[in-house]
Amino acid sequence: MQDPGFGRVACFGSNSKFGYNDKMAQWLISFIITYGYLAIFIGSVVEGETVLVLGGLASHQGYLSLPYVFLVSLLGAVIGDFGWFIAGRIWGERILTRYPRFKKWTAGMTRAIHKRPGTLSFLLRFLYGLRHIVPFSIGMSDISSKRFFACPK
Fold first, then answer.
1. Hey, is 89 helix, strand or coil?
2. Phi and psi dihedrals of 13, rounded to 5?
3. Whose CA is closest to 133, among 94, 87, 97, 100?
4. Closest C-alpha among 147, 140, 142, 89 to residue 121
5. CA distance 71 to 65
6. What is the C-alpha R_g of the chain?
7. In angstroms, how far is CA 20 from the centroid of its own chain?
8. 3-state secondary structure (DSSP) of residue 32
9. Which residue spans within 20-148 are E strands per DSSP?
10. pTM for this one?
11. N- to C-terminal Cα distance for the chain?
């Protein structure tokens, strides 16, 4: 496999102030180059920001097409959000009973959901670190899946 050329630019040393590990970053880059759009999709389902940036770098180097990177990451993000919504709808109470520490995370979200469900449903795509908690909490509420995606007020 040819060196993508952006590996050294995208990675920081393990002793850097950012605390990134070269081996993990190199693994992510080679995973994206090896599996292409499938890696972008899987990464977008799990947590898309890092994978999307690396997908953009891969498209800049000619390994992937940028419009397809955007399309595949959008599909992965939507499917991931809906998966967390369904998990909250089906298993939400059982998970909170089994793992009480999660109640603390979802309590604030539940209050916010009842005040402005449409706004929060829309904003979840832009709230870093809350991307899984918000749809899970919305799934536990009485908001329909149609409203979750449509985001009306």
1. helix
2. -65, 155
3. 87
4. 147
5. 10
6. 18
7. 19
8. helix
9. none
10. 0.71
11. 50
- From the number of C-beta atoms within 10 Å of its C-beta (0-12, 13-18, 19+), residue 134 rates as buried
Phi-psi region of 97 (alpha: psi -120 to 50; beta: other; left: phi over 0): alpha
Q: Which residues contact 59 (CB under 8 A, 6 or more apart)?
A: 65, 66, 69
Higher pLDDT, 21 or 122: 122
69 pLDDT more than 50: yes
* Comparison of pLDDT for 94 and 2, the residue scoring more: 94
Q: What is the mean pLDDT of the chain?
A: 77
Residue 33 has pLDDT above 80, yes or no: yes
State the Cα–Cα distance between residues 127 and 39, nearest whole angstrom.
23
Residue 92 and residue 136 in contact, taking contact as beta carbons nearer than 8 Å: yes
Q: Are 110 and 133 in contact (CB under 8 A)?
A: no
3-class secondary structure, 143: coil
Going by the DSSP 8-state scheme, the letter that residue 16 receives in this structure is S
* pLDDT reported for residue 17: 44
Is residue 78 packed enough to be buried (19+ CB in 10 Å), middle (13-18) or exposed (0-12)? Answer: middle
